[in-house]
């Protein structure tokens, strides 16, 4: 069953120069138990989409969509408070910098217990606090923290980034969310801790059937841990499909460039040789090119590209490009 | 090939005061020795707190070593003659934005670097500034821009221009590539590789991205608790890691 079904999500910002469209008609689906990767240059709108899903964007942003279904229920038809309630119950999010999201003045024990909703704790209110304490310890164990005594009685600054990130995950899964959104959760961490975290997220996915939207630019992790993949460029969805398929045979020149620019995906590339790199950089929202937003940087751009390409598909593999790349060897 | 940098038995201890009586000493560097040749790249990997940044800071003279010797092109570097060398080794941080003065135009910032460290006249300075902007793929008109008018990637280019403007022989990259977007990182990596080929620039690359280390570096040092636990040619070290800590860093255990 489709957990999340978003059609033509558009996110605009009111500025002095009028509305700028940061996210432009993006589709996003997530099935129950699915891990979907979301990749794209920074500034391409990944965090905005995540924040739109959990409804934390402020009044300056205008969010519209043709469809915004959660478990078959149209969230757009609900009042703001009802949306909040459903999202707060079912969706959890972890951010890139745990040290900024944890309260520096409160002990981990307090913060973690506070994140456990009352209805997760069974039984009457009597003795609830001690059961919460037990639950907090169990949560830490679940995310791979063995020394719960020391961690619970620490302030965030006394812990390493890796441990803080695990605490964030513990807080996020305290309410047994159906969907976990992880916004570049490992960028600040070293590779061994990164691997641990990804293993943790995968095991939660497998044991609890928790769906995950994994925002990351680390393509090797994306390849290893996600089932499906959406690629954004400059606020537009340029490609999506099965991760293995998209990475093996990208149709869109941006996806292709992304894959070629990472040495680990070019096993035959000799050390110290030039990497494939698109010229230029991602345009700012104030200076978006007309038509295909990759146009000015695209090696295959032609006249037709001044018209925005529409989303097309070949066997559940979606792409928006007038001149999709050809299959290797054909 | 000439040995550009030779470090012998470098030690550095930090003292942290806890309250009145308790003092903690942290051995950030213990007996570090290595050599780096012109035109080569040496990578330093290790978990957070293993002393990588301390080593970089000692090499550029921000921190003073307790013991040990640093030789640049055969000559011993001491604190008193450090100024003489500070254009030979340049340092690029992870966080370009914080390293740039927000209230100074790019052109002025670059000119200042030249004014402090070279004997060039006004016209020569101007020329050099434009040259170094070009080198990193920026344009002449950017001299009138303030740092906040650039994207993160462009800011990293500006930081690179500032590092390169004194024609250094060695550039220290302390996680400077880690936070960049993949396609942008590819651009900067290519630029660095080109400079190395053309000008024989040497790099000391501090990075937790082992794939990048593998692609760019010739030699690699693995650090743990301020000590070198393993070192060798990168390819060999990463295909046949000997030390348990190296394997752990590679996520193999
Ligand atoms: N608070 C904000 N004010 C103005 N522009 C913003 C704000 N937050 C994000 N943006 C812009 O929206 C675009 C998408 O940002 P974001 O979703 O954070 O990108 P990503 O997460 O992919 O790096 C960027 O161009 C960014 O500059
Ligand atoms: N200015 C300082 N004062 C006291 N301790 C420091 C200082 N700078 C670094 N340290 C300590 O020295 C050790 C090495 O730090 P650092 O060189 O920054 O490691 P890395 O760059 O590998 O993460 C750490 O234990 C760190 O806490
Ligand atoms: S539509 Fe044109 S410009 Fe856009 S990605 Fe395809 S070929 Fe390139
Ligand atoms: Mg983001
Ligand atoms: Mg460091």
From TrEMBL, chain A:
<dbReference type="InterPro" id="IPR003439">
    <property type="entry name" value="ABC_transporter-like_ATP-bd"/>
</dbReference>
<dbReference type="InterPro" id="IPR013563">
    <property type="entry name" value="Oligopep_ABC_C"/>
</dbReference>
<keyword id="KW-0813">Transport</keyword>
<comment type="similarity">
    <text>Belongs to the ABC transporter superfamily.</text>
</comment>
<keyword id="KW-0472">Membrane</keyword>
<keyword id="KW-0997">Cell inner membrane</keyword>
<keyword id="KW-0067">ATP-binding</keyword>
<dbReference type="InterPro" id="IPR027417">
    <property type="entry name" value="P-loop_NTPase"/>
</dbReference>
<dbReference type="GO" id="GO:0005524">
    <property type="term" value="F:ATP binding"/>
</dbReference>
<dbReference type="InterPro" id="IPR003593">
    <property type="entry name" value="AAA+_ATPase"/>
</dbReference>
<keyword id="KW-1003">Cell membrane</keyword>
<feature type="domain" description="ABC transporter">
    <location>
        <begin position="4"/>
        <end position="259"/>
    </location>
</feature>
<dbReference type="Pfam" id="PF08352">
    <property type="entry name" value="oligo_HPY"/>
</dbReference>
<dbReference type="InterPro" id="IPR050388">
    <property type="entry name" value="ABC_Ni/Peptide_Import"/>
</dbReference>
<dbReference type="Pfam" id="PF00005">
    <property type="entry name" value="ABC_tran"/>
</dbReference>
<keyword id="KW-0547">Nucleotide-binding</keyword>
<protein>
    <submittedName>
        <fullName>ATP-binding cassette domain-containing protein</fullName>
    </submittedName>
</protein>
TrEMBL record, chain B:
<keyword id="KW-0547">Nucleotide-binding</keyword>
<dbReference type="GO" id="GO:0005524">
    <property type="term" value="F:ATP binding"/>
</dbReference>
<keyword id="KW-0067">ATP-binding</keyword>
<comment type="similarity">
    <text>Belongs to the ABC transporter superfamily.</text>
</comment>
<dbReference type="InterPro" id="IPR003593">
    <property type="entry name" value="AAA+_ATPase"/>
</dbReference>
<feature type="compositionally biased region" description="Polar residues">
    <location>
        <begin position="233"/>
        <end position="243"/>
    </location>
</feature>
<feature type="compositionally biased region" description="Basic residues">
    <location>
        <begin position="244"/>
        <end position="253"/>
    </location>
</feature>
<keyword id="KW-0472">Membrane</keyword>
<keyword id="KW-0997">Cell inner membrane</keyword>
<dbReference type="InterPro" id="IPR027417">
    <property type="entry name" value="P-loop_NTPase"/>
</dbReference>
<keyword id="KW-0813">Transport</keyword>
<dbReference type="InterPro" id="IPR050319">
    <property type="entry name" value="ABC_transp_ATP-bind"/>
</dbReference>
<dbReference type="InterPro" id="IPR003439">
    <property type="entry name" value="ABC_transporter-like_ATP-bd"/>
</dbReference>
<feature type="region of interest" description="Disordered">
    <location>
        <begin position="233"/>
        <end position="253"/>
    </location>
</feature>
<feature type="domain" description="ABC transporter">
    <location>
        <begin position="5"/>
        <end position="250"/>
    </location>
</feature>
<keyword id="KW-1003">Cell membrane</keyword>
<protein>
    <submittedName>
        <fullName>ATP-binding cassette domain-containing protein</fullName>
    </submittedName>
</protein>
<dbReference type="Pfam" id="PF00005">
    <property type="entry name" value="ABC_tran"/>
</dbReference>
<dbReference type="InterPro" id="IPR017871">
    <property type="entry name" value="ABC_transporter-like_CS"/>
</dbReference>
